[in-house]
């Protein structure tokens, strides 16, 4: 068994035979042969190798005659490789001793050597692997003969493994025959990731080199949640994953029934659960699950495609797609939230300093220094606001001055649109992310100047604890359960309530079910989450009572360590799910019930 | 070409040479080496460091990954060992396979 890790881009678990695409387009139909077929399979191998040898010999002659001896020699090398006695012996040994099929055995042997070549750390030698892949291709083509089985003719569902997938390749795949994707290349925003997400297939990308470690037909497990690929798993692991995949299927069928359910607590409090999206294509995941809106539409992908800055029309088209699909439900569009390292050269003009720093020139700070680009985005947002409930949100606001500047630019753009006679929603709600501690601490001041808050816990945790969220060594420090984080959230929620400003929580914290009772207890009624957890959260909300949640929050706030908070919340959710009653002493901790309950509806107009 | 050569009574020969081809021991020189080695009845091996490859097995030679200037040892045992080592060492140290 071999474990490979990559970037988890689309959740779910799949178990199935591997199809390796890109290096070979052949599918090995069976891994084993019957014991009594071994001799005839060995004959089949010999005949195939003989034909290859003859074919290569002919090619060698043709190339030598037409192009010169040195070109013929390329084929001579390939021919020699096919006739190589030690190679043939190894393949035969696999067929004889392990009952492998000739296809699987040959693939296995060749992969062993290509892997060795690639691991030498010598780029020249790694390229030699191409010669071996070429041999594998020939052998498989010959062995499979007319029965050659390409991706288009799949009969049973498979796990697709590839170096990279082009969008057209992916689009032409038979959805019912592909269980999951894993690619060597790609990132969170690669096409494969987008498509896997849109198709809701489990997917892992950016694994790095692994194709030479797996032979076609071998059983693999893809865990799209953890970002793992398990090659040739042992029986125990396999059984465990099959159970999990089955449980997940059963659960997702049950949760589908939540589509038309309005999320409410057991005592009738309405909870608004919205979706976070990055690509317009993802809006379907929200509508399919009866989302109350798009609580966070990240617009960064527009800036990451190609070298040029996105045009107003590109922004506008993307926004309109989402706004139209949400049919009147709120869509919160967040303006560009990138560091200077991610934007095009034209936007970065004249900027010095550390481009990739989380504490640097990024997000709203960058927008305010690149007014033409900022205005382009705001124009598109405003134009889209004519078609639905669009709200605009500024990220990473840390001072009042920044907020006022951003609002001023927005007012300028409105004026321009007015002059041009272009329609937009004049009273478009304006909000800000609360993700810098300075903004959280001054929530009272900010609340006077915005229509809504959205607490971005990912950055708020990072900045509060001074812990880089991408640094695995700081995983213990970076915790949503840290008392300092809870205190800031409580502070922001109370300040917002004083000014009648609704608060949403977006970020990973709200997508994690164990935090739901805490957040409800802190007074949060709106969350924006990864779309696929919406049904689960609806289900959980229905099992909670506001008073109980307030008790949970009060108890959690009394704990001193992040670890204790997280453990406590985990136990609480387990208890709720299993339907055990609350401990009696909880009532003593309950805070007075807030008179305001429907923040989100209050912001609508 | 050769910096060391021993010939024992029982027809064993060894010779250490440096790879001459600028691209190292890649497909083309390996093809020539295996073709040459296959003509001899004796066993011929080529080793680099700890790794040992049968000179008649192309796939094994490939994984030796011997780069230009690296030293490899050719060893033959059996009838014609001397001639085999001489011919193969010459092929490996040649700057061009042709």
UniProtKB/TrEMBL annotation, chain A:
Cofactor requirement: Mg(2+)
Domain spans labelled PEP-utilising enzyme mobile: 155-227
InterPro entries: PEP-util_enz_mobile_dom, PEP-utilizing_PTS_enzyme, PEP_util_AS, PEP_util_C, PEP_util_CS, Phosphohistidine_dom_sf, PTS_EI, PTS_EI-like
Its EC number(s): 2.7.3.9
Catalyzed reaction equations: L-histidyl-[protein] + phosphoenolpyruvate = N(pros)-phospho-L-histidyl-[protein] + pyruvate
Domain Phosphotransferase system enzyme I N-terminal: 5-128
Enzyme class: transferase
Biased composition (Basic and acidic residues): 572-588
Region (Disordered), start-end ranges: 572-605
Transport recorded as keyword: yes
Every PEP-utilising enzyme C-terminal domain range: 256-543
Alphabetized SUPFAM superfamilies for the sequence: Enzyme I of the PEP:sugar phosphotransferase system HPr-binding (sub)domain, Phosphoenolpyruvate/pyruvate domain, Phosphohistidine domain
This protein's UniProt keywords: Cytoplasm, Kinase, Magnesium, Metal-binding, Phosphotransferase system, Sugar transport, Transferase, Transport
Cellular location(s): Cytoplasm
GO MF annotation list: phosphoenolpyruvate-protein phosphotransferase activity
Family according to the record: Belongs to the PEP-utilizing enzyme family.
Protein name, UniProt field: Phosphoenolpyruvate-protein phosphotransferase
Gene: ptsI
UniProtKB/TrEMBL annotation, chain B:
Gene3D superfamilies referenced in this protein's UniProt entry, alphabetically: HPr-like
Alphabetical UniProt keywords: Cytoplasm, Phosphotransferase system
Domain of life: Bacteria
Cellular localisation: Cytoplasm
Keyword hit for Endoplasmic reticulum: no
PROSITE patterns in alphabetical order: PTS_HPR_DOM (PS51350)
Residue ranges of every copy of the HPr domain listed in the record: 12-98
Protein family (similarity comment): Belongs to the HPr family.
NCBIfam families: PTS_HPr_family (TIGR01003)
Name listed for the protein in its UniProt record: HPr domain-containing protein
Organism: Alienimonas chondri
């Amino acid at each position: 068994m071999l474990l490979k890790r990559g970037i988890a881009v689309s959740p779910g678990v799949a178990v199935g035979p591997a199809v390796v695409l890109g290096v070979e387009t052949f599918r090995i139909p069976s891994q084993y042969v019957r014991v009594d077929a071994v001799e005839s399979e060995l004959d089949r191998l010999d005949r195939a190798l003989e034909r290859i040898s003859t074919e290569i010999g002919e090619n060698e002659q043709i190339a030598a005659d037409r192009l010169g001896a040195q070109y013929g020699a390329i084929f001579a090398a390939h021919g020699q490789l096919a006739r190589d006695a030690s190679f043939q012996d190894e393949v035969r040994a696999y067929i004889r001793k392990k009952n492998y099929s000739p296809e699987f055995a040959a693939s296995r042997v060749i992969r062993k050597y290509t892997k060795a070549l690639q691991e030498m750390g010598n780029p020249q030698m790694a390229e030699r692997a191409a010669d071996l892949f070429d041999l594998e291709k020939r052998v498989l083509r010959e062995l499979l003969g007319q029965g050659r089985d390409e991706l288009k003719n799949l009969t049973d569902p498979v796990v697709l493994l590839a170096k990279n997938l082009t969008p057209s390749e992916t689009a032409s795949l038979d959805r019912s025959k592909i269980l999951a994707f894993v690619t060597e290349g790609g990132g969170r925003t690669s096409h494969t990731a987008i498509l896997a997400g849109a198709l809701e297939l489990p997917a892992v990308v950016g694994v790095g080199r692994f194709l030479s470690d797996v032979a076609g037909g071998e059983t693999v497990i893809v865990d799209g949640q953890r970002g793992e690929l398990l090659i040739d798993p042992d029986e125990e692991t396999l059984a465990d994953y099959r159970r999990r995949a089955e449980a997940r299927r059963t659960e997702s069928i049950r949760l589908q029934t939540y589509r038309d359910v309005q999320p409410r607590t057991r005592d009738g409090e309405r909870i608004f659960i919205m979706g976070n999206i990055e690509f317009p294509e993802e809006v379907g995941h929200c509508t399919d699950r009866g989302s109350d809106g798009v609580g966070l539409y990240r617009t960064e992908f527009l800036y990451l495609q190609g070298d040029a800055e996105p045009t107003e029309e590109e922004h506008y088209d993307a926004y309109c797609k989402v706004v139209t699909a949400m049919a009147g439900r709120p869509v919160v569009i967040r303006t560009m939230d990138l560091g200077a390292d991610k934007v095009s050269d034209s936007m970065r003009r004249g900027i010095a300093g550390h481009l990739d720093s989380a504490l640097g020139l990024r997000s709203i700070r960058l927008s305010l220094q690149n007014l033409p680009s900022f205005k382009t985005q705001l124009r598109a947002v405003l134009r889209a606001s004519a078609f639905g409930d669009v709200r605009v949100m500024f990220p990473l606001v840390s001072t009042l001055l920044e907020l006022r500047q951003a609002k001023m630019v927005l007012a300028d753009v409105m004026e321009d649109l007015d002059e041009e006679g272009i329609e937009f929603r004049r009273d478009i709600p304006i909000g800000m992310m609360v993700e810098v501690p300075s903004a959280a601490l001054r929530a009272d001041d900010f609340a006077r100047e915005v229509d809504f808050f959205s607490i971005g816990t990912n950055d708020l945790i990072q900045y509060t604890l001074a812990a880089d969220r991408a640094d695995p060594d700081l995983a213990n420090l970076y915790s949503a359960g840290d008392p300092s984080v809870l205190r800031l959230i409580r502070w922001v929620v109370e300040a917002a309530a004083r000014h009648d400003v609704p608060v949403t929580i977006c970020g990973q914290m709200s997508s994690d079910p164990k935090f739901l009772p805490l957040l409800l207890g802190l007074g949060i009624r709106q969350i924006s989450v990864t779309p696929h957890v919406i049904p689960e959260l609806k289900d959980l909300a229905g099992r909670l009572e506001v008073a109980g949640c307030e008790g949970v929050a009060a108890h959690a706030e009394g704990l001193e360590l992040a670890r204790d908070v997280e453990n406590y919340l985990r136990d609480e959710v387990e208890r709720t799910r299993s339907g055990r009653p609350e401990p009696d002493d909880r009532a003593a901790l309950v805070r007075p019930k807030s008179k305001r309950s429907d923040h989100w509806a209050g912001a609508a107009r | 070409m050769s910096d060391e050569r021993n010939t024992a009574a029982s027809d064993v020969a060894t010779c250490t040479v440096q790879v001459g081809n600028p691209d190292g021991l890649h497909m083309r020189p390996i093809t020539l080496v295996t073709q040459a080695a296959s003509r001899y009845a004796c066993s011929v091996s080529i080793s680099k460091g700890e790794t040992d490859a049968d000179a008649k097995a192309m796939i094994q030679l490939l994984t030796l990954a011997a780069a230009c200037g690296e030293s490899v040892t050719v060893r033959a045992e059996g009838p014609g060992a001397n001639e085999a080592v001489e011919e193969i060492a010459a092929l490996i140290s040649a700057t061009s396979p042709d």
